[in-house]
Structures are given as C-alpha cells and as structure tokens.
Amino acid sequence: MMIEKADFSKLTVLLVDDNEFIRKLLGDILRSFRVGKVIQTGSVAEALSHLATLQPDVIFCDWLMAPVDGLALLRAVRHGQTPIDPKTPVVMLTGETRVDRVAVAIADGADSYIAKPISAKILMSHLIKLILADRPVHYLD
Amino acid sequence: MTNSSPPQRPSLYEKTQGPEAVPIEALIQSGDTAAQRASAGYLDFFRERLASVAGLAKALFAQPSEDGWKSLYMAMHDLRSSSASAGYQTVSAICESLERLLAERDRENPLMRDVVTLHLDALSLASSDNAPIPDSEEATGLIESLGRAVDKLPRI
To answer: Other C-beta atoms within 10 Å of B100: how many?
Structure first.
C-alpha cells in the first residue's frame, strides 16, 4: 500500500539533536510538511522534561550526543521509564552507517534509522514508513 | 517516572488521512525549498564551529586526554553530517577524512598533530570564499592528498 496524500497538521513531533543547524534544518522541513507542532530540543535531559507533559506522535532523535546519547532516550521510552506510550515511534538520526551500529538501534526498538545527510525526500520516506507501520488493524469476525 | 497505564494514542495513519491531505510530492517540493533556505546560512555556522574545533585541537595537543580526543572526534562527526545535509560535499569529505584519522590511527604517532592541522587548514579553505568548486580536479585532489596523509599513520 502506498500513501499519495497526507495531512500532518494534527501531528506533534519531538526533535532531539545537539547540532543547532540540524535542528533548524529538520524543523524547517517538518514545518514545510505542515506538521502541526514541532518541538526542538538540544539534549536528552531537555527531551525528557518535555515528555513529562507531552505525548509526541513521532520522536526524531540524534544518536551521538553528550553527555547522554540518543540511545538512552530510546531505551527510556521503550522500557516505560517516561510517561509516554512506550510504543511511540522513534527514528534515530546518525552519521553512523556501520551495520553493527544500526543493528544496536534496531535491537533497542528504533522504528527507523536515518543515516545523515538528511533531505526532505528522505525525511518524508521515513514518515510514510512510520504511518504505514502504525495503521489500525481490523480483524474479520 | 514509570507510568503503569501509558496513554493511548490514535494511529499515525488515522491522524494523517483526511480531506485536508496534500499530495506527498508537493510536500517534498516544499521541504526542498525549506532545506535550501535553512542551508543558506550554513557556512557562517560552520566557520564558527571550526574556530572552536581548532581551539579544541590546540588544547588537546598541549595536554592530551581521552576526553579531549573524544570531544574532537564528536565535533568532527557532527560537522561531517551537518555539512553533508547542507550540501557542502567537499567540506563533508574533509571532515570524514579527519574523523577516520581520529578513529582509526595511532594518536601517539608524531605525525598526528601535523595531519590534524592539515585537515583543519583544508576545512578553512573549503569553507572560505576561495573554496575549490565541488567535484573539480582541485577539490578531488585535495581530498585525495588528505587521504594519503591519513594513510601515512599506522592503524591502531
């Protein structure tokens, strides 16, 4: 199944990246996609404080950050250590392309994985992948 | 912070379909325009970061430390991916070469300092108004020369 059209205006996206340029680039692209709410944070600590009061629809999170890396945020979400739905889609962003590193992120529950550089087309393809994976399932009686 | 009954959320599919839906191709075009606009000021951001990376390297060679090496590597990793996302391929390739040097080569080798400095000088040139044209002979030659300099150092 393909998606030809989308309305992202009801979505809330949390962006976590310590690089201010990448935050701006991703934020601007997502807003141009008409995403309703884009929250940008520069650290895992800041992201966790947002998650205390916010249920994002999607989280885009950089992997290599200091002092706490993005994998720690992914694990906290998946292990129910934050108040949000542990199944909230999380997309990891990184410059790493080594297969063993990618495998770690997938094993820890990342829904998708974007190896930088980032473009509008790549970002959209990952959003569509998440939407298709998060469809309601209707069982026949 | 654990919550025993996490909030239920509507599926992404349900939330993104409806009468206001816009063709995906149109959204991508709009995203490309936004990306070009965001990238327009990238070189100013890069030059500012490069100055702080040069400071990091200077401090590291004056007083080497594991944290210093890690910070330099992370800064270069960060600049490599952001410059590639902004469309500066020559800058990104030089960052990648320096990242490879820091990750794979012997830090104790006396050539290390010179090869790091060579990369920082190359980054300074590639982000200047006199930068070589991407994919030109000059740009390719610069990247190849840096690669050969990295290869002079033994692997860890």
So the answer is: 16
User: What integer is the mean pLDDT of A55-76?
Assistant: 94
Q: Which domain holds residue B127?
A: 41-151
Using CA atoms, how far apart are residues B39 and B85, in angstroms rounded to an integer?
8
**Minimal Cβ distance to B21: which of A7, A19, A31:** A7
What ipTM describes this predicted complex? Answer: 0.91
Domains in chain B: how many in total?
Answer: 1
Residues of B in contact with A8 (CB under 8 A): 16, 27
| Chain B residues 84-143 with a CB less than 8 Å from chain A | 84-86, 92
Partner-chain contact B27 A64, CB within 8 Å: no
Quote the pLDDT of residue B135: 86
User: Does a structural domain hold residue B85?
Assistant: yes
Residues 6+ apart with CB under 8 A from B7: A55, A83, A84, A85
